[in-house]
Amino acid sequence: MSELELRQTTVVSAAEHEAARPARRMPRIGTLLAFAFVAFLAVAAFAPGLVQTHPPNAISAAEAFQAPSFAHWFGTDESGRDVYSRVVAGTGTSLLIGVTATFIGLLLGAVLGALASFGGRAVDFGVSRLVEVLFAFPGLLLALLVIVIAGPGPVTATIAVGLSTAPGYARIIRGQLVAIRSAPFVESARVLGHAPGRILARHILPNALVPLLVLATLGIGQAIVWASALSYLGLGAQPPAAEWGAMLAAGRTYLGTAWWMTVFPGLMIVGTTVATTVLGRALTRRDQEVR
Q: Whole-model pTM?
């Protein structure tokens, strides 16, 4: 290779490296923004007084339907309550419902997936058919069916969302456990004569834990959306509770004149879903790089 060709190759390699740098930087910026938003949600959930500007339930008829301003960042509702402070107050409720529902779904999914993976052909067949039957119902419809049987309320809505997400988690967890169970390092442990309990505790469960955590991160946003939808339909948290879905339902009557009552709670739902999804995908990429 001549000196000129060598210089051209070096220049092209440097240009490709510089062109690839923004592509790698953008996911990092998105991840940082998502992490900052989730950090704000954590503060709003555990210490709402630090970020609230007004008492969330303070009623002032003279300040009803005020548009967003420096005094009221998200405006006020029909009772003069500060919408921003109510959105902050509803963060804890919405996150609690989302996290609890995700935990319920993951727990049931892990039980069903483990039974299907380690219970033999007959158990695997039975669990798989049960999951397929549950998959025949749309998730929200299954949650509505549970609420019709058990009655409306935030606790029932949380359980209903958890039950409706369990079939999807069961299928994913079963596939993950089957793949790990047939991995070379597990086969080597069997050949060495390790007990099944030791193989499960030292090899299978640790390798399945990280994907489960990633799956939980991705599922929290979905659970919050479904719980908010149930509250919007009047089957979850009831007004005057400061819950995002209930605030959406309360503001729909005034959408033409006081759009901020609906837009800002809706943006919080969307922002939370996007942020948790971005963090979940970042964890997925990191787990794949480690592997």
A: 0.77
